[in-house]
User: Fold AMP-dependent synthetase from Amycolatopsis deserti.
Amino acid sequence: MIHRSPLPDVEIPDVTLTEYVIGGAARFGDATALVDGRTGETLTYAGLRAAVTAGAAGLAAHGIGPGDVVALMSHNQPSFVVALHAAIATGAAVTPVNPALTPGEISEQLRLSGARVVIAAEPVADKALEVADEVFVLGEHPRARSFTSLFTDGPAPRLDLDPATTVAVLPFSSGTTGIPKGVRLTHRNLVANLAQTRAGWRIGPDDVQAAVLPFFHIYGFTIILNSGLLGGAKVVTLPRFELDEYLRTLAGHRVTRAYFAPPMVLALATAPHVEDHDLSSLRFALCGAAPLDVEVTERAQRRLGCLIRQGYGMTEASPGTHQVFDDDFASTPPGSVGRLSPNTEARIVVPGTDEDVAPGETGELLIRGPQVMAGYLDDPDATAATITDGWLHTGDLVRADEDGVFWVVDRLKELIKYKGYQVAPAELEAVLLTHPAVLDAAVVGVPHPEGGEAPKAFVVTAQPVTGDELMSFVAGQVAPYKKVREVEFVERIPKSPTGKILRRLLRP
Assistant:
C-alpha cells in the first residue's frame, strides 16, 4: 500500500537554493531577516541579499565555483547565513561542519568532502587553521583573513547548472548504519523540501522564529533557517541552548514559532521559573531530531501555554517527510509525527522484505519523493543499500492509522541519538579497539536522562583497565556529544555467525 499526503502536490521551482530563498528577499525590503539574540547584530532582508551577492562575487573572484566544496564551521549567527548562501551562489557545494568536532574529525570531513577552503567562526578558527590550508574567518583572527575582506561590488556569478543534479549541500550522516557518509543534497532536493514544508507550515512576515538548534544540522538548516527566510520571518539566532537565555529570547522578541529537540522539552517541563516569562506570543512549537516522550510533552506545553507537536525526517530526505500542519495542530494526537508532506509517498514494509504490512501494523518506513537525496558521496554500495527503486529505506519502524497519521514505534538502525545528534556505534568501537587493554568492544544506545539516549560500551579486556580510563580515552578523540558515558566489562561480545554484533542482546 502506498500512503500519500492529504495535501495536493506543490509546484517545485526549477531554481537553485539561493535563488529560491534569497532571490525573493527584495520583496521583504527593510524588514528584519536575522537577529543575533546574544549580540544584537541585525540584518534586514535587503542587507542579507546585498551581503550574499558581495560574498559570492568575492568568492568567485578568489576562484571558487561549480565543482568546488566549501566547508562552513560556525555556531548560529547572521554571518553563517551570509557565508552559506554566498558560497552556494558561486555554484559550489557547502559541507556544514559541527564546531564541536575534534581537529582529527574535521580533517576527515574535509578529506572526504574535498573541501577547498574553510569558513570558520572566530571561536573555532584555531581548530580550522590546524587542519586546513586556507581559512576565512567570520570575524577577526591574527592568522587568517576575514570573510568580509573578500566582498566585492561585482555581481554574483551567472550560473549554468542543473538544479536537479548539482549538489548544493553536503552534510555528513551515518545513514542507517556505519560511519558518517556525505549526503548529496541537490538544489532541487532542498527547494522541493522547502516548498513541501511551506504548504503545511505557513510561515509569514509576521512570524518570529527562535533558532537555537544548529544550522549545521539539517533540521536547523531547512526547517528553521531557510523555511523562515523563505517566508519572510524574523529569525533570532542563539549559539547554544541555555534555558534562561532562551526563555528571555522567546519573551523579548515575541517569538511565534519555537523549535525544540527533546532535551529542550525536558528542561521546559522540569526547570523552575519558566512561568516567570511572558510566552503568550507562542503559537506553534515543533520538536524533531529524536523521539519525544508524551508525558514530558504535556508537562512542557502546560507551562508554555502552547501545543508541542513532532515532525519526522532524516538528512537523506532534506530532511522533512512528515509534519503536523498548522491547521491540524490541535487535532493531531501528541506523540505522532503527523501526516506525509505534499509530493511524498510512503510504504510500510515487513523489515528485510519488499512486502507491505497489513493496514495498522508496524513495519519499516520507506519514502519516495523529490526531497530524497541523490545518493551518498563516493559510496555507491551504501546508496544502493539505502535507496531501492526510488524508495528510501529509513531504518525506522512506524505504523499509520486510518487517518493517515504516522507514529514512530522503534528503529532498526543502529544509530544512537544523543540530544538529537547522530552517534555511530562503529566509530566509537573503532576508537576503543585502539586501546591496548581492549580485545573487543560493542557500543549501544541506552536511556539517558538528559540526552534521551547515550553511548554505552561493552568491553572485553586483555589487561586491567577502569571504565573511567576508557571513557577518558574515547573522549580525547571524539566530539563531546559522542562520548561514551558508561562502560560494562563482559567476557564476550555476542555476534552472529557472520561476525555482526548482536546489539539487541546488549540493550536494556
